[in-house]
Design a protein that fits this description.
single chain, alpha/beta, Rossmann fold, four-stranded parallel beta sheet, 11 helices
Length: 396
C-alpha cells in the first residue's frame, strides 16, 4: 500500500510506536496484553431482545420488529454460538502464544454483550496491563468490521476514565493473511472433490463466496478515503481478491477444474428496503443457477470467522433451503473457527506487530496487502453517524 499522509499525524490512544501515524510500524513495540474484540451475542432467551436493543441502539427500532430477528436466536434456544467460539479462540490464542514463549494474557471484550469492552479494559488496567494490542474477530475493511471496533476502543477508554492510561493498538486487517485464507481453501477443495466424485462436471458446479451485506454507501467509503477501489469499495475488493486467490490455488492443486465458475454474493441484510445494500443476495443467486445449467453449489462463508448466527441461520437454514427448492446439490464449507493454521496466523500478526516487521516481508496473498497497522484518515466512514472518536487510526 502507498503512504499518502505525513508520519507526524496524531493517532489517539496509541502506544508509542504507533502514535506518529505511519501506516506500518517502524520500530518494535512491547505490549503487555492482547485484547480479543468481538461482536457479542445472547446466551439465553431472556438475553435476546436486550442484546438486539444494544445492536440497534440509536435507530429507534421497536421491540416488535426486533422480535422478528429474535426468532433466529430463539430457534437455537436464545443462544448465539459466537460467545462460545470466542472462549475457544481465546484459549487457543493463549496456548499458541505460550508455545512460542509469549506469556501475554488475552482479555476479551464485546461490543454488544457481556463481557463488554469496558469490562475488558478495566480488568486489564486493574492487573497493571496498559499497553494493549487488539485482535478483532473480523478480517475485512468496513465500518462495522473495522472502524466500529476502533470506536469501541476509544469509547471504552473514555467511559472508564482510562484514556491516557491504557493505550490500544490493533493488528492489521487480515483478509489476505495465509492463516485466514487456508481453512477456506481446504474446505472448498474438499467440497469440489466430493462433487466431482458424485459425477458433476465442472461447468455444473458453482462456487458462491458468501459475506455479510452492508449499505452500499458505507461500502463505497470502506478503506482509506483517498483511495479508489471500485464498486463496493475496499470491502468488496478485498473479498473478490481473496476469492480469486483461492480459486487460483485450487486450480493449481487440481481441486478446481477448468470451467468451475465462482462469484461473490451477499447475505444477512438488515436495512430498510429503500436503502441500497450490496447485492446479489445469496438466495436470489441460488434461484438463478438452474437456468445456467448449474446442478451443484458450494457455499463458502468467506466473510465469517466462525459458525455464528449469520452462518447457522442465513446459510445453513435459508440458503440451503433455497438450494433444495432449486433442485441443487449444496454444500456449506467450514469457517476458520479455531483451525490451527488460523490461530497460528493470528499470533503471527501479533508477533509481526511486536517486532515491526517491514511491510515488504509481511505475508499476504493478494496485491491489496499487507493492510495498514494504523488506519488512514477518513477510513471506513459511517454515512449515518459520520466520524466518531476512534483508536488505532489517524484521526478522523
Amino acid at each position: 500500500m502507498t503512504e499518502t499522509h505525513p508520519d507526524t499525524a496524531e493517532v489517539p490512544h496509541a502506544n508509542d510506536a504507533s502514535a506518529a501515524g505511519h501506516p506500518h510500524s517502524l520500530r518494535p513495540q512491547e505490549y503487555d496484553a492482547i485484547l480479543l474484540a468481538s461482536f457479542g451475542g445472547p446466551e439465553g432467551q431472556e438475553d435476546v431482545i436486550p442484546f438486539l436493543r444494544n445492536v440497534t441502539r440509536g435507530r429507534g427500532i421497536p421491540d416488535a420488529r426486533l422480535e422478528e430477528v429474535a426468532q433466529h436466536y430463539r430457534h437455537f434456544g436464545g443462544v448465539s454460538p459466537i460467545n462460545e467460539h470466542n472462549r475457544q479462540l481465546r484459549e487457543a490464542l493463549v496456548q499458541e502464544l505460550h508455545s512460542r514463549g509469549m506469556t501475554l494474557p488475552v482479555y476479551w471484550g464485546n461490543r454488544n454483550w457481556d463481557p463488554y469492552m469496558e469490562d475488558a479494559v478495566q480488568e486489564a488496567a486493574a492487573n497493571g496491563h496498559n499497553r494493549l494490542l487488539a485482535v478483532a474477530t473480523s478480517a475485512y475493511s468496513s465500518y462495522s468490521s473495522c472502524r466500529q471496533y476502533r470506536e469501541d476502543f476509544a469509547r471504552a477508554l473514555i467511559n472508564t476514565g482510562l484514556a491516557g492510561v491504557v493505550r490500544i493498538d490493533k493488528v492489521r486487517q487480515f483478509f489476505d493473511a495465509p492463516g485466514f485464507v487456508q481453512p477456506f481453501a481446504e474446505g472448498l477443495a474438499a467440497a469440489l472433490r466430493e462433487f466431482a466424485a458424485e459425477g458433476f462436471a465442472p461447468e455444473e458446479i458453482r462456487v458462491l463466496f458468501c459475506t455479510h451485506s452492508i449499505p452500499t454507501a458505507d461500502a463505497e467509503r470502506s478503506g482509506p478515503g483517498d483511495q479508489h477501489f471500485g464498486e463496493g469499495g475496499a470491502y468488496a475488493a478485498q473479498h473478490l481478491a481473496v476469492g480469486a486467490k483461492i480459486m487460483e490455488q485450487l486450480a493449481a492443486e487440481s481441486a478446481a477444474q477448468p470451467g468451475t465458475a465462482w462469484e461473490l454474493v451477499y447475505q444477512s441484510r438488515s436495512g430498510p428496503p429503500t436503502q441500497p445494500w450490496l447485492e446479489p443476495d445469496v438466495c436470489d443467486s441460488i434461484a438463478e443457477l438452474p437456468d445456467q445449467g448449474v446442478k451443484a453449489v458450494a457455499l463458502v462463508p468467506l466473510g465469517f470467522l466462525s459458525d455464528h448466527m449469520e452462518v447457522l441461520w442465513d446459510l445453513d437454514n435459508e440458503a440451503m433451503e433455497a438450494a433444495e427448492e432449486a433442485g441443487l446439490r449444496a454444500a456449506r464449507t467450514p469457517t476458520p473457527g479455531i483451525h490451527p493454521t488460523f490461530v497460528a496466523g493470528l499470533v503471527d500478526l501479533i508477533q509481526e506487530r511486536i517486532q515491526a516487521v517491514v511491510a515488504q516481508e509481511r505475508p499476504r496473498l493478494t496485491r491489496l496487502g499487507p493492510w495498514y497497522d494504523v488506519c488512514r484518515p477518513g477510513c471506513c466512514e459511517n454515512v449515518r453517524l459520520g466520524f466518531r472518536p476512534a483508536a488505532a487510526g489517524v484521526a478522523p
